[in-house]
Amino acid sequence: MRAQFVLSEIGVGLRRNLTMTFAVIVSVALSLALFGGSLLMSDQVNTMKGYWYDKVNVSIFLCNKSDAESDPNCAKGAVTEDQKKQILADLDKMSEGDKPVVEKVTYESQDQAYKHYKEQFGDSPLAASLTPDQMQESYRIKLKNPEKYQVVATAFDGRDGVQSVQDQKGILDNLFGLLNGMNWAARAVMALMLVVALMLIVNTVRVSAFSRRRETGIMRLVGASGFYIQAPFIMEAAVAGLIGGTVACGFLVVARYFIIDHGLALSQKLNLINFIGWDAVLTKLPLILATSLLMPALAAFFALRKYLKV
Predict the structure, then answer these.
(1) Which positions fall inside the ABC3 transporter permease C-terminal domain (predicted)?
(2) Beta bridge partner(s), residue 167
(3) 33-78 pLDDT tens trace
(4) Could you say which of 114, 161, 170, 290 would form a disulfide bridge with 83 (CB–CB 3.0 to 4.6 Å)?
C-alpha cells in the first residue's frame, strides 16, 4: 500500500511539473553526455598515445653537399664515411648493456629518401626540381622508451656530419596537447551544464513541495515519518535524472556508431588512427546511469531539508 502510494505520487509530481521535469531531463542528458564524451576522449587520447608513441622514431639527418654550402651546422662539409661509421658504432653501443636506449637503427640512403619523397609528394611542384643528391642520408632510430629522446639528441646534435636530430614525439605532443585542451573545454561545459541541472532539480523539488504543502501537512499531522513524506519528491528527481541518463547513454552509443563505424565512418577513412572500441563505451554506461540516479536524488534530499521541514 505504501509503495503504491509513493509510486502514484511520483507520477502525479512528474505530470504536475511537466515543463520543469522536461528541462531537468534535457540538462541532465546533455551534461552526462558531455561527461561520458570527455571520458571517452581521454581514453581515445591515451589509446592514440600508446599506438603512436610506440612508433616514434628519432631521425639523425646527415649533411650533404648542398647543406655544406647553406647550413651552419654543416660548415665542415658533407658527412664522410668515417663519420657515418662512428655514428653507427655509437648507436650500437646505445643498444647494448643492461638498460639499452636504442631498440633498432635503420639507415636511409639519399636514393631511398628521394624515392620516399616522390611517393608522398610526387604531385608537388618542388618534387620535379629535386634530385637524389639533394636529399639527406639519415639514421632512423626506434627507442626503447620514447621519453629518452634527449639522450640521443645530446650525443649526436652538433657533431661533425650531423645536420640535425629530430624527434617525432615533439610533433605528437603538440597534437595531444590540442586534444587534451579540447577535452578540458568539454569538461568545463559539462561542469556548467551540471550546475544548471542541479539548480533545475532543486527548483523543481521546491515547486513540487510547495504545490503539495497541504498534503504534506496532513501527513505530518497523522504521524507519517520524514522519509515517507520525502520519498516521493526524491524519487521524482531520481526518475527524471535516470531518464536523462538513459538519453545520454543512447546519445553516446549512437555517436560512436555513426561517427566511427558508419555515417562518417572515421575508422575507415582514418586508418592511421587507432579508435577506441565498443568496450570503452559500454564500460562508461553504468557509471553514467548511476550518476544520473544518485545526483538528482541527493540534490533533492538536501533541497527538501531546507524547503520541506519534516
Answers:
(1) 188-306
(2) 58
(3) 888 888 888 888 878 777 776 667 788 999 988 887 788 888 888 8
(4) 161
Counting DSSP H helices and E strands in the chain, the numbers are: 12, 4
List beta partners, residue 68: none
The residue among 8 and 25 whose pLDDT is bigger is: 25
CB within 8 Å of 100: residues ≥ 6 apart: 94, 144
**What residue type is 135 in one-letter code?**
M
* CATH 3.30.70.3040 residue ranges for the chain: 57-168
- CATH 3.30.70.3040 is the classification of domain 57-168: yes
State phi, psi for 46 to the nearest 5 degrees: -65, -40
Q: Give per-residue burial for 141-166: e unless 16+ CB within 10 Å, then b.
A: bbbeebebbeebbebbeebbbbbbbb
- Dihedral sign (CA 66, 84, 81, 117): negative
Check: CB of residue 152 under 8 Å from CB of residue 143. yes
Q: What is the pLDDT of residues 177-188, one digit of tens each?
A: 877 788 788 788
* Nearest-angstrom CA–CA distance, 287 and 241: 13
